[in-house]
User: Fold this.
Amino acid sequence: MQLQHHISLLPYNTFGIDVPAAHLAIITTPQHLHHISQLPQPVRILGGGSNILLTAPVPDVVLLNRLMGIELLHQDQDHVWLSVSAGELWHDLVLHAIGQGWGGIENLALIPGTVGAAPIQNIGAYGVEVCSTVESVTYWHLTDRNFVTLITPDCKFGYRDSIFKQELKGKVLITSVVFKLTKHPTFNTSYGAIEQELQQMNAPPSVQSIAQAVINIRTSKLPNPKITGNAGSFFKNPTISHTQYSQLLAQHAAMPHYPVGNGWVKIPAAWLIEQCGWKGYRKGDAGVHNKQALVLVNYGAATGNELWQLSSNIVDSVLQKFGIELEREVQVW
Ligand SMILES: Cc1cc2nc3c(=O)[nH]c(=O)nc-3n(C[C@H](O)[C@H](O)[C@H](O)COP(=O)(O)OP(=O)(O)OC[C@H]3O[C@@H](n4cnc5c(N)ncnc54)[C@H](O)[C@@H]3O)c2cc1C
Assistant:
């Protein structure tokens, strides 16, 4: 494993922030994992850099996870079990699955990043979260220097959350994930505009047509990071108590909401941000996307600090207007 020095991270993050890393190493085989402990510590891990905001030069070793491979472990009449190395691109896995007619992850088409990062924030879109198809996650423990496999209940999956964002944060490198996909998919088309898009495509629901519908919708709504730097949704949708929701509703009758059980209610962060007047805002090259207020964008030369400051201003104004504190979904380095 070769260690490179003073490397720009510009090609390695979708926000398009140009800061250097003191050192960079690329993990391409499991053998490389045994050498990590000989590198200057601490180390940080990057997959596709699509959920990261870089606010300063990184003084540490950045490990780029490029462990590749998709293996069919087992199948029966109804299901397949795939072991996928963590450096595979998530969308390539979706294409692989729909190519075989296997269902479960078609609603998650076109999410950028790597398979290894998918369980970390339990990626989700269009009514599906990745945890519904994950059987187990295997990681390399950076200080214990051994492999550990966690079955799904032990991953503590939640909304954009898992054990890898909490207790195990910074301590492990996810090396592979086992997925259980179905040969007899039931389709989830109720969310967003999927049904409308399928009608426009004049296509009956199938894993292929749903993935294509999701791709069409995402392409029309979200900025392409290759053109405009961004990391997808910058904030999580906040969950508030039903009591707080009822009080807010008295002042904001049009406030959208989704009951999530046990007296809790989820409010779309995009709506809150839009109500505070941020949609389409731009200062210098840092801005809020004009079609989706949840997405902060770098129009070219914004710094990570400018984007961070913008996100803090948004948090402050939403807190002031609604009494709700937004939580950042993006990891900040
Ligand atoms: C245009 C766009 C749309 C998006 N849409 C969605 C969406 O619909 N739903 C959604 O959930 N997310 C979405 N995202 C966010 C992002 O794609 C996901 O969070 C993705 O899983 C990040 O993968 P990555 O490989 O780029 O992770 P990175 O950004 O490289 O890393 C994210 C975090 O995980 C850690 N990490 C990465 N790989 C490993 C590993 N192998 N082991 C241990 N730690 C690791 C990093 O240290 C970092 O803390 C979107 C992003 C963009 C740019």
Notes: The CA atoms of residues 2 and 70 lie 25 Å apart. The longest strand covers residues 172-182.
